[in-house]
Design a protein that fits this description.
The complex is a heterodimer of chains A (438) and B (176). Helix content of chain A is 52%, strand content 8%. With 438 residues, chain A is α/β, with parallel strands linked by helices. Classes of the chains: A alpha/beta (438), B alpha/beta (176).
């Protein structure tokens, strides 16, 4: 892209953001926006880096994003998430994922393998009672400590609230003098120091993108459906699904009580990073895992999955956050649920689809919710560019009416192995077929 | 033991009709595990049944460690009378080739959740062609980001969207 004046880039930035805002609010902008996420390793594969380098060289990762994303004329660009994650994982002893280059061979994958989560039963079914009595205390002392071995001293973290009592208050402070705790703090400091290059890289990315008139999506508000949080991080899918039969009340209650801390976490991240929406728009990504067709019946979905997720999204909407559930897999059997909820929150959300027919979705609920998606990964990897163009054209024709449509890939946005010419074809097709007014 | 087999068949049928889903498969797997624990050494007899429809070689391809989809396919093929050899996850192309030569299945079922699986599947099938083994076997593919377009990209024969598809495709091929 050519060097542009400050005024021009500010104007371009504002135009792009407004285009996305209009589409989300169900107003017709001048053109259908294109707002891709990319999978973590798309920019680094394009820049010729290995996955191992991507996991450990945060600054280089950010520079790859800057270079690769700037090739494309998009309306909203991906935020860089988790660069340098490998280093941080090593230092906190993360045992929930496997990744390229991990210091511990038990968690190490090949240099060209993307990181992948390990599902494990971190919490036994018998422990629901403890979790329900004191969710923060239980997760802090019993789960987080085992998922991140460096944080083990937190097993003995005192009940700080007892500071209100002058008798037990003093004893509470001894925790901070414990030698294992001091060692832990030292490790965490080291971890943060090791991340400085990454932070600088992230700052350079944001600043340079802004200078070029490229709005970077505010993405720090990530969320999860409560059922998925239990399935992914506490009980494992097997455990969570057995609980549907053996501990249904505890499971439902836990889904319910997890919503508040999830919402509070959003306030924290908004506090930490300031007001991110001045120059951009935050679409809060909620990747959904076990709610898809085939995983459970509609009755089970209605009983166990949907109530927690909708409570979470309602809480977000009340805070003026735009929820963007990512309906990964196929949600054809669930469309009635999705439509009913959309009707209650017109123009306040984005529904991102993977393998559901978005033209059918548009007919069903296009008057109430902005749709995002769903150029298939198979096309973005396998091509040819003409087939990509044809798919985007058809999607635009079926979804553009009345605003409410954002073009992106179906799964993970642009997949890691996508070819440049196919991504270019997707981008060009939006500029070619997406105009509302000539 | 016949009762166990019969009940597993019923569970498989209900899964095909979308009356049962993963929680029911997992729950019945758990019950089955408890039964086998009681039976102990007699387990082997049950597994080597006589009325097998034919052999299927199954695995998640190199680079990918996801197993949920593969395991559901294995369960459904099992209860529908196929003899299944499951190679596990992150299986290198060479391992598929070796097992294919030894086990001589009529069907090869390749699973993958990540998009990198496309090229891993392609590598396996290219190597089969090079070794002159491609014609001996029917190949079906499936998994999270896989779709019918990938059949041509990797040089397979069919795509299955669900475990039920996998059973139907394998049944058709065995009857050919």
């Amino acid at each position: 892209m050519n060097k542009m004046s400050k005024e021009n880039s500010k104007q371009l930035l504002d135009e792009r953001v407004q285009r996305v805002r209009d589409a989300v609010a169900l107003k017709e902008p001048d053109r259908v926006p294109i707002t891709p996420f990319t999978d973590i390793f798309f920019p680094t594969i394009q820049a010729g880096m290995s996955h191992k380098e991507a996991m450990y060289k945060g600054r280089k990762y950010c520079n790859a994003c800057l270079k690769v994303y700037s090739r494309y004329d998009w309306d909203l660009y991906p935020a860089v998430l988790f660069p340098g994650l490998g280093k941080l994982n090593d230092l906190v002893g993360n045992e929930t994922i496997k990744w390229a280059g991990a210091a511990d061979p038990n968690f190490r994958l090949g240099d060209h393998q993307p990181y992948q989560y390990i599902e494990k039963e971190w919490m036994k079914a018998e422990d629901y009672e403890k979790l329900l009595q004191d969710p923060t205390g239980y997760l802090l002392r019993n789960v987080m400590t085992r998922q991140n071995t460096v944080l083990t001293p937190f097993e003995n973290f005192p009940n700080l609230a007892m500071f209100v009592s002058m008798f037990s208050g003093l004893g509470v402070t001894f925790f901070f003098l414990n030698k294992d705790v001091k060692k832990m703090v030292k490790s965490l400091r080291k971890a943060l120091r090791g991340m400085i290059g990454t932070f600088l890289g992230m700052r350079k990315y944001s600043k340079s993108m802004k200078k070029r008139g490229n709005p970077v999506a505010g993405q720090m508000v990530l969320a999860q459906a409560p059922f998925d949080m239990i399935s992914d991080s506490l009980r494992g899918m097997r455990g969570a699904m057995l609980d549907m039969y053996r501990n249904p009340e505890e499971l439902k209650k836990t889904c319910d009580i997890l919503v508040e801390p999830l919402l509070a976490g959003m306030d924290n991240s908004a506090f930490t990073i300031g007001s991110p929406d001045e120059d951009t728009i935050t679409l809060s990504f909620i990747p959904l895992h076990r709610g898809a067709d085939g995983f459970m019946s509609n009755d089970q979905f209605e009983e166990f999955y949907w109530p927690g997720l909708t409570k979470l999204m309602e809480g977000m909407i009340a805070k003026d956050i735009i929820p963007m559930p990512f309906y990964e897999g196929r949600y054809t059997d669930r469309l009635e649920f999705l439509a009913e909820f959309a009707k209650k929150h017109k123009g306040k959300m984005v529904y991102w689809f993977h393998d559901t027919d978005i033209i059918k979705v548009k007919e069903m609920m296009g008057d109430y919710v902005c749709i995002r998606g769903n150029v298939p990964a198979s096309l973005l990897v396998g091509g040819p560019p003409e087939a990509v163009e044809e798919y985007v054209k058809k999607s635009i024709e079926g979804c553009m009416e009345g605003g409410g449509y954002l073009v992106d890939g179906g799964v993970s946005g642009i997949p890691n192995e996508a070819k440049h010419e196919n991504v270019q074809a997707m981008t060009d097709a939006v500029h070619k077929y997406g105009m509302y007014r000539k | 033991m016949d009762d166990v087999k019969k009940s597993m068949k019923i569970i498989g049928d209900k899964f095909s009709k979308k009356e049962y889903f993963l929680p029911e498969l997992i729950m019945s797997g758990e019950i089955l595990r408890q039964i086998f624990e009681e039976l102990g050494p007699r387990l082997k007899e049950v597994q080597s049944s006589e009325n097998k429809k034919g052999k299927v070689l199954l695995g998640t391809v190199a680079g990918d460690i996801h197993d949920i989809g593969k395991d559901v396919v294995k369960f459904m093929l099992d209860v529908n009378g196929f003899d299944v050899l499951d190679l596990g996850v992150d299986v290198p192309a060479e391992k598929f080739l070796e097992s294919l030569k030894e086990y001589k299945p009529k069907v090869l079922a390749l699973s993958g959740f990540l998009t990198l699986a496309y090229d891993s599947m392609k590598e396996i099938i290219d190597k089969l062609k090079d070794a002159g083994l491609r014609e001996n076997v029917n190949i079906m593919i499936g998994g999270g980001t896989v779709d019918e377009r990938i059949v041509e990209y990797v040089g397979a024969d069919a795509y299955g969207q669900s475990a039920v598809d996998a059973v139907n495709i394998a049944t058709k091929w065995m009857e050919e």
